[in-house]
Task: structure prediction
Amino acid sequence: MDTWCDVAEAGSLAPGNCRTVEARGVRIALVCLDDGFHAVEDACPHRGGSMGSGYLDGCTLHCPLHGWAYDARSGFGITRPDKPLRTFSTRIQEGRIWVRLTDKPPATVSHDEDLD
Result:
């Protein structure tokens, strides 16, 4: 599968904000930064917190449950480099935000008990 999915109106998310969207059953955290839209998997690898409900500090996206930090552009795990977020390509077409789903399997969400 390599499919582009329409997930939101481009004007519905201002820079510095994020929210959860769904594309073909896949939950995605959609992030708007000054340089455009970015998309990462919605479940934090730590305990599964919704990244779309997290908060942004510049380009750093924080999980709302325990504050694990990620680069919203690349999915890089700032708190735990070995636990990145899966990223999705985005594009704007006719005022809508589109996210590309691929065959790449989603990152496994581990519920590590010892990582608080």
Remarks:
- Residues 106-116 have pLDDT under 50 and may be disordered.
- The CA atoms of residues 38 and 90 lie 6 Å apart.
